[in-house]
From TrEMBL:
<dbReference type="GO" id="GO:0008897">
    <property type="term" value="F:holo-[acyl-carrier-protein] synthase activity"/>
</dbReference>
<dbReference type="InterPro" id="IPR037143">
    <property type="entry name" value="4-PPantetheinyl_Trfase_dom_sf"/>
</dbReference>
<protein>
    <submittedName>
        <fullName>4'-phosphopantetheinyl transferase superfamily protein</fullName>
    </submittedName>
</protein>
<dbReference type="GO" id="GO:0005829">
    <property type="term" value="C:cytosol"/>
</dbReference>
<keyword id="KW-0808">Transferase</keyword>
<dbReference type="InterPro" id="IPR050559">
    <property type="entry name" value="P-Pant_transferase_sf"/>
</dbReference>
<dbReference type="GO" id="GO:0019878">
    <property type="term" value="P:lysine biosynthetic process via aminoadipic acid"/>
</dbReference>
<dbReference type="InterPro" id="IPR055066">
    <property type="entry name" value="AASDHPPT_N"/>
</dbReference>
<feature type="domain" description="4'-phosphopantetheinyl transferase N-terminal">
    <location>
        <begin position="31"/>
        <end position="124"/>
    </location>
</feature>
<dbReference type="Pfam" id="PF22624">
    <property type="entry name" value="AASDHPPT_N"/>
</dbReference>
<dbReference type="Pfam" id="PF01648">
    <property type="entry name" value="ACPS"/>
</dbReference>
<dbReference type="GO" id="GO:0000287">
    <property type="term" value="F:magnesium ion binding"/>
</dbReference>
<dbReference type="InterPro" id="IPR008278">
    <property type="entry name" value="4-PPantetheinyl_Trfase_dom"/>
</dbReference>
<feature type="domain" description="4'-phosphopantetheinyl transferase">
    <location>
        <begin position="138"/>
        <end position="216"/>
    </location>
</feature>
<comment type="similarity">
    <text>Belongs to the P-Pant transferase superfamily. Gsp/Sfp/HetI/AcpT family.</text>
</comment>
Length: 268
């Protein structure tokens, strides 16, 4: 079991930039905490928060946005990038919706992040680079296993031939359900890393679990990208972990072997 509010540091390859994974678990917010979080958000963010139907959904959206700001400020300070207050961050989105920091706190180091939330858990991945290096292609996802999801119907539509074959070969429905959500977390992290989201064909890449040992904690799953013209120069890597019996998380990164470590996010 993982405790709430923890951090895991990942060095994907030797000499590559470290990625921090921050795990936060939501608890009931007091009135003073809610007011403090409200003061951190922009007018546009507050409008989005207030657009949710229920008070629980509003509180969760407020917590996610405020937590991201606090984690980014803490990261910037710990890595001696800049002293930057949580209410100062400004965000924008790429063409397919991937968020990025619009007002970098330093002209010498640029911070990259990606986030995912499910249930009471929030996962934030963060790293930084020199501004003359290209943005990193990395994505994170956290998934809750659900008992009412028709896993085979969805898998037949969205999984690759290899993934579906390995899924159907598992001995029982319980194992198949667990593998389905493992794969879904991996695939979500991949399409978030590319910056193209669901514009990416989910059958165009595969996660190969054959021979993968699944210890408790965190382990690597090989990634195969179909028809990748850069496959000889670049490689994808994915890490999958379990928070508990219900929640799992994934990190996907594309690596070039260059000094700064990661494949640039495509412009289109």
């Amino acid at each position: 079991m993982w405790d709430k509010n923890m951090r895991k540091d990942i060095v994907v390859y030797k000499n590559a930039q470290k990625i921090e994974l921050h795990f936060l678990k939501q608890s009931q917010l007091s009135d003073s905490q809610q007011q403090h979080f409200i003061e951190l958000l922009t007018k546009d963010e507050l409008e989005r928060v207030n657009g949710f139907r229920t008070s629980e959904m509003k509180q969760h959206a407020l917590w996610v946005r405020a937590s991201l700001r606090q984690v980014l400020s803490d990261y910037s300070q710990r890595h001696n990038i800049a002293e930057f207050e949580p209410n100062k961050w400004k965000f924008d989105k790429l063409k397919y919706g991937k968020p990025y920091i619009k007002n970098q706190p330093s002209r010498f180091q640029h911070i990259e992040f990606n986030l995912s939330h499910s249930g009471e858990w929030l996962l934030i991945g963060i790293t930084h680079r020199k501004p003359d290096n290209q943005p990193f292609a990395f994505g994170v996802d956290i998934e809750r296993e659900r008992s009412n999801t028709n896993v085979m119907t969805i898998a037949k539509r969205y999984f690759s031939e290899l993934e579906l074959k390995q899924l159907q070969a598992l001995a029982c429905e319980k194992e198949q359900r667990q593998r389905f959500f493992d794969l879904w977390a991996c695939k979500e992290s991949f399409i978030k890393a590319t910056g193209k989201g669901l514009a990416t064909d989910l059958t165009s890449f595969s996660y190969d679990f054959f021979g993968v040992q699944e210890p408790s904690g965190f382990f690597k799953v090989p990634v195969i990208v179909n028809n990748d013209p850069l496959s000889k120069k670049t490689s994808w890597v994915c890490y999958l972990g379990k928070l508990d019996d219900v929640f799992r998380f994934a990190l996907s990164v594309k690596y070039t072997g260059s000094n700064h470590g990661y494949f640039p996010i495509p412009d289109e």
